């Protein structure tokens, strides 16, 4: 069989990794596919900067049309990221009858429905293993190895920047802003880290996971999203006292005809395997009705792990083409007409346990006022820590309460009411707790 001719749009850090992997492992790839995978054209606005890898003369171009109009190119890799012009380029490549490989979780989270529908019409495949978890092969496992299971839940630590920051805060007692600065210096965080630390990047990945796990379309704006920028050293300290570790967790659940889809800082029991995922590593834990709990872990970003996932998709597509299989599987693993819209449970209706941290005056009646408001909204207290002043002092003291399971809406109303009391000195904070990750 002739070599598989591929076009690459976006010659940044990940694109350079793809070039290097295809070059260094060309023989093992050929031995597994029965044909070579050749990057015939690479399109980027900047084709003069040294990427640390060499390409043959004539491969680089500043015009994406050189890829779209080349009939020998059967697969297009999109690595420019973002929404536009990525969406336009992907749809144009599909219209030209070319298969797609992408790592663009943001594009799929917001425009996946349009892209997948276009691929169905043209009979081509869209592969996106690298969009979630970098080199962790979780999407292929969901679509293939675990295809016989009803998947009930999926939990994920899917942003290395946030996990690195929270790990340092936990292990060293470091301050959020100081660790973020270090993460930027080390290249773990972008100069503008908003998408990472405010949970948007994780929510993009959760949108992809929810679609694959539950066979549904989800509107990205329906995913409740919070980041870690408000997590303090006190939160980390008290979580540990109660036997928990704080992680930025993506949560997807399919329960009684509704989906929970949310991203927020979450307290996880110390004896849970996912609580031990530290540094820049990612982990995704899902539960199927027959397989039970399964966890995937590894480097969730970086040049080499992401390139591994991208070229893995290329190998899969190449095998299909060599076998004449054409479009073997729909992008989400379900038959196209079996994908349905499942309602997303409103955040106010979810139930959880909570750690609530109040900053209050150290005087009689404080606990009674707080407990009274919580009780009024049906919230019961499981345990509590109060730090009293050893000497007479007018400064506020932290009061930390662990609740039994309660409705989110009730928690929000109670805290709003308590914050109006003259005994409260600062805005009250709370963190949700997930005791059962199955």
Please explain how this structure is put together:
This protein is an alpha/beta fold and 438 residues long. The chain has 3 domains: 4-134 and 303-334, NAD(P)-binding Rossmann-like Domain (Rossmann fold), CATH 3.40.50; 139-299, Dihydrodipicolinate Reductase, domain 2 (2-Layer Sandwich); 348-433, ACT domain (Alpha-Beta Plaits, 2-Layer Sandwich), CATH 3.30.70. 35% of the residues lie in helices and 24% in strands. It has helices spanning 13-24, 26-33, 65-68, 86-95, 105-122, 138-145, 160-172, 176-186, 194-197, 200-214, 233-241, 303-323, 366-376, 408-418, and strands at residues 4-9, 37-43, 60-61, 73-78, 99-102, 126-127, 151-157, 224-225, 244-255, 258-269, 281-288, 292-299, 351-360, 381-386, 397-403, 406-407, 429-433. The strands form 2 sheets. Strands 7, 8, 9, 10, 11, 12, 13, 14, 15, 16 and 17 form an 11-stranded mixed β-sheet that branches. A 6-stranded parallel β-sheet has the order 3-2-1-4-5-6, sandwiched between helices. Helix 1 (13-24) crosses helix 12 and helix 4 (86-95) packs parallel to helix 5.
Q: What name is given to the CATH topology of the largest domain?
A: Rossmann fold
Number of domains: 3
CATH superfamily of the largest domain: NAD(P)-binding Rossmann-like Domain
Residue share in helices?
Answer: 25-40%
Secondary-structure content class: alpha/beta
Number of beta-strand segments:
17
**Quick check: average pLDDT?**
92
Q: Mind telling me which CATH architecture of the largest domain this is?
A: 3-Layer(aba) Sandwich
């Amino acid at each position: 069989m002739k070599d598989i001719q591929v076009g690459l749009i976006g010659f940044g850090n990940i694109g350079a990794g793809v070039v290097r992997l295809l070059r260094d492992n060309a023989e093992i790839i050929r031995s597994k596919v029965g044909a070579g995978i050749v990057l015939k054209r690479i399109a980027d606005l900047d084709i003069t900067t040294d990427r640390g890898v060499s390409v043959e003369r004539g491969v680089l171009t500043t015009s994406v049309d050189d890829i779209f109009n080349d009939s020998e190119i059967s697969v297009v890799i999109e690595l420019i990221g973002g929404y536009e012009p990525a969406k336009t380029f992907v749809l144009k490549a599909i219209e030209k009858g070319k298969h797609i490989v992408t790592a663009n979780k943001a594009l799929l989270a917001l425009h996946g429905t349009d892209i997948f529908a276009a691929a169905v019409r043209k009979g081509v495949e869209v592969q996106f293993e690298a969009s979630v978890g970098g080199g962790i092969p979780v999407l292929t496992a969901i679509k293939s190895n675990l295809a016989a299971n009803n998947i009930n839940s999926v939990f994920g630590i899917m942003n290395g920047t946030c996990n690195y920051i929270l790990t340092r805060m936990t292990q060293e007692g470091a301050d959020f802003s100081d660790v973020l600065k270090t993460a930027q210096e080390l290249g773990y965080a972008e100069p503008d880290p908003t998408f990472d630390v405010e949970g948007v990047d994780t929510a993009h990945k959760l949108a992809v996971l929810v679609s694959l796990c539950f066979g549904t379309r989800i509107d990205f704006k329906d995913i409740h999203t919070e980041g870690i920028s408000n997590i303090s050293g006190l939160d980390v300290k008290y979580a540990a006292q109660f036997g928990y570790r704080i992680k930025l967790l993506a949560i997807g659940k399919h329960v009684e005809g509704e989906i929970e889809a949310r991203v927020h800082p979450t307290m996880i029991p110390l004896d849970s395997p996912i609580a031990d995922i530290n540094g820049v590593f990612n982990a995704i834990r899902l539960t199927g009705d027959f397989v039970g709990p399964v966890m995937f872990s590894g480097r969730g970003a970086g040049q080499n792990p992401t390139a591994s996932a991208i070229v893995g998709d290329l190998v899969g597509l190449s095998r299909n083409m060599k076998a004449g299989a054409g479009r073997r599987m729909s992008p989400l693993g379900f038959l196209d007409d079996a994908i349905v819209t499942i309602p997303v449970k409103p955040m106010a209706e979810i139930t959880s346990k909570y750690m609530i941290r109040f900053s209050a005056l150290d005087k009689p009646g404080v606990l009674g006022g707080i407990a009274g408001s919580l009780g009024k909204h049906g919230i019961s207290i499981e345990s509590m820590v109060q730090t009293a002043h050893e000497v007479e002092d007018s400064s506020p003291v932290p009061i930390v309460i662990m609740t039994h399971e309660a409705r989110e809406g009730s928690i929000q109303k109670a805290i709003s009411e308590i914050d109006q009391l003259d005994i409260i000195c600062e805005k009250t904070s709370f963190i949700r707790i997930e005791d059962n990750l199955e």
